[in-house]
């Protein structure tokens, strides 16, 4: 049985640079009505950049929404109609300065489908060449690198709290044939 909600009415109440917000009136399967607040987002590319010596390049940046500096994999918003692989290359270079000769798509996932349509496209980047980072003018980023096992420990220690980064790190571990602790 497929459960659906039919949209009766949809109204955009905010349109910003990163997101838009709409309110939908929906008909539920039992014919009652409800309201859904939907954050619209154009999607993002998420990159796990791996150096030749097996380290993963991470970025640390302040996130106003949680009032904390978070350790994250590089990622960024898709431009309208942009191919996620192009976005992945651009964001990797902008945030870290690295350029990848081998950008491998893994899978896509929704960041928070209970209230947002944002879809994230995950890539592993290898064959890296270091260059100069060019973050957006309002981004202040510290670039750091860790071994995969260290990152997995940091997740369980509560030191990495960003969901896309947690997904990306465990996916990279699986992709590389490591166990849940990041060991081969």
From TrEMBL:
PROSITE patterns: NUDIX, NUDIX_BOX. Its EC number is 3.-.-.-. The keyword Iron does not apply. GO terms for biological process: nucleoside phosphate metabolic process; ribose phosphate metabolic process. Residues 39-168 form the Nudix hydrolase domain. GO terms for molecular function: hydrolase activity. Transmembrane segments: none annotated. Keywords: Hydrolase. It comes from the Bacteria. Its cofactor is Mg(2+). GO terms for cellular component: cytosol. PANTHER family: NUDIX HYDROLASE DOMAIN-CONTAINING PROTEIN, UDP/ADP-SUGAR PYROPHOSPHATASE. This is Methanol dehydrogenase activator. It comes from Thermotalea metallivorans. The lineage of its organism: Bacteria, Bacillati, Bacillota, Clostridia, Peptostreptococcales.
